[in-house]
Amino acid sequence: MTTPRVLDRFYSVIPAGGIGSRLWPLSRADAPKFLHDLTGSGHTLLRDTWDRLSPISGEQRIMVVTGRAHRAAVEAQLPTLADANVVLESEPRDSTAAIGLAAAILERREPGVIIGSFAADHVIHNQRLFAVAVKEAVAAADQGYITTIGIKPTEPAIGFGYIHCGGALTLAGAPSALAVESFVEKPDLVTAEGFLASGSYLWNASMFITRADRLLEEIGRSKPELLAGLLELAAAWDDPAARGPAVDRIWPNLEKIAIDYAVAEPAAAAGRLAVIPGYFDWDDVGDFASLSKLNSGGRTTDLAILGADARVLADASSGIVVSQTKRVISLIGVKDIVIVDTPDALLVTTTDNAQRVKSVVDALKVAGSTDVL
Question: How far apart are CA 125 and CA 227, in angstroms?
């Protein structure tokens, strides 16, 4: 596929943060989800994301926003990542701060730049269809829209948020662009079935493509104090002497809010948000149920096994086993089981309860058991 001219001004941004608490105890603060190979590809999710984006924007036009503690691991995974394109957070402040800071830095370096934000820990298949969607999103963004890519749903999933689509937009270079009516939080099963039947809803994959100046403008509309902090940080960023003190002074005080709430929802309400339907396979690997599905070819009757040294004996069982030990794990006649065996923690649940794993992490925090987080 030929890279279109409109992508000449395009810059990819990879937010690589969060610990993936619904994948505990596999995903930890020091080894978050994006640093794992969860699909058997032989590469971490971060590396797969890089390989997906580099043909579109070029390796020298990819910026990664991550925590200070993960710098060495990120750079080991991405040896051609430019040093100037590593943005380090002193602590997590959610996606608006992370993506907004990247936008502010890049807009100062290259006024008029178009950025696309793509999470480091999602799984996407079919590079050609992904590139086609990005191309259309960039075209829509160049015409002033905050643009997202929504995924055509294949089932009434309750683990994803949804985008309620409106009418078609007439945008040059983006023939499939639609207006966005609203964003919808994760629904119950009956509601999700209604969404699927209506044909008017897409899964929210949290991919945002926009001119950097337009993103900053939208942040300023809803969160002016947050924008002021981001602009002050960006002004100091490329001065090595000023950057550290500015981060230590400003970053911890920035409001912690997701970009969906600070930017996407207000833009949708004002008619400034467009969506491009994506027809590629996508999963945010948000819990062990989705991880089981990914690694069993979608067959719920199969047992997925992850771990280079896993020793699993199974009879008439389904679900997923993740083993980081050499312990023998035997399963007999259990359905939809989730077992995650690590040297210092063991999780046993079912795929139906996979979303509740986050509550275990919350309870461990309250109990002060941070050694296993």
Answer: 35
The pLDDT tens digits of the residues spanning 224-273 come to 999 999 999 999 999 999 999 999 999 999 999 999 999 999 999 999 99
**Of 145, 189, 157, 128, nearest in space to 1 by CA:** 128
DSSP secondary structure letter of residue 60: G
Least Cα distance to 237 among 103, 59, 114 occurs for 103
- Going from the C-alpha of 38 to that of each of 203, 281, 295, 328, 354, the distances in angstroms are 21, 16, 8, 21, 16
**Helix boundaries (H) for 124-239:** 127-142, 189-198, 212-222, 224-237
Dist. CA 276–CA 366, nearest whole Å: 41
303 burial level (CB within 10 Å; 0-12, 13-18, 19+): buried
Q: In angstroms, what is the C-alpha Rg of the chain?
A: 21
- Residue whose token pair is 């065996």: 341
Among 89, 102, 81, 121, which residue's Cα sits nearest to residue 13?
A: 102
Tally of CB atoms within 10 A around 258: 14
Neighbouring C-alpha atoms within 13 Å toward the C-beta of 182: 3
List all residues 6 or more positions away from 317 whose beta carbon is below 8 Å from its beta carbon: 303, 331, 332, 333, 334, 335, 337
The Cα–Cα gap between 54 and 77 comes to: 14
Q: Is the peptide bond before 343 cis (omega within 30 degrees of 0)?
A: no
| Structure tokens that stand for 63 in this block | 């910026």
Alpha helices in 30-83 (DSSP H): 45-57, 71-77
Predicted confidence band at 329 (pLDDT cuts at 50, 70, 90)? very high
Q: Which residues pair with 277 in a beta bridge?
A: 150
Pick the closest to residue 109 from 85, 78, 128, 140 (CA basis): 85
CA distances to 284, 332, 334 from 315, rounded to whole Å, are 30, 5, 8
